[in-house]
Amino acid sequence: MTIRLLTGLFLLVFMLGCSSTKISSDYDKEADFTKYQDFHYLGWAKDSDKILNDLDKRRIEEAFGNEFVKRGIKFVDASEADAAVSLFVVVDQKTGTTAYTDYYGGMGMGYGYGRAYPGWGWGGGMSTTRYQEYDYLVGTLVVDVFDTETKKLVWQGVSSGTINENTKNREDRIKKVARAIMAKYPIDPAK
Q: 11 with 51: CB under 8 angstroms?
């Protein structure tokens, strides 16, 4: 049941405008990315299908497929492909802590002797700090591109961020995240 709950929540990590979303990539500096003219999906890596429903998997595959097409790499049958793409999803539960400090100052009246004047001034005060722990979910989407001839990993893109419960515009967010990850791919989209 927890996994089904995560199914609905996972894709909410794709809030590109959120500052907690991080995009990174790495690639084989020796690989010739211009030779990859077509690709196929290897399928979802182990346990990813337990986190995502079929609709979300198709949305993600379509978003990445469109980004590959923009780079001149088309989707084909597995036996004909130059590159193989694997997708992987991980959701981790984390615990964070917030602290809030209330400052209470005191007002005191002082009266001086001799040439001093009576007046108001700030006196001693106290402060109280409250700590609160909270749980949150971090989702990570990993995209791996393999050379089908050598079976070696040639590129990896990763998006990681805090999951937010807002379900609005899910498809648009998926497209934005796919675009952001693929912006790190060594071949730029055709203009």
A: no
pLDDT tier at 175 (50, 70, 90 boundaries)?
very high
Q: According to the model, what pLDDT value does residue 64 have?
A: 96
Predicted model pTM? 0.71
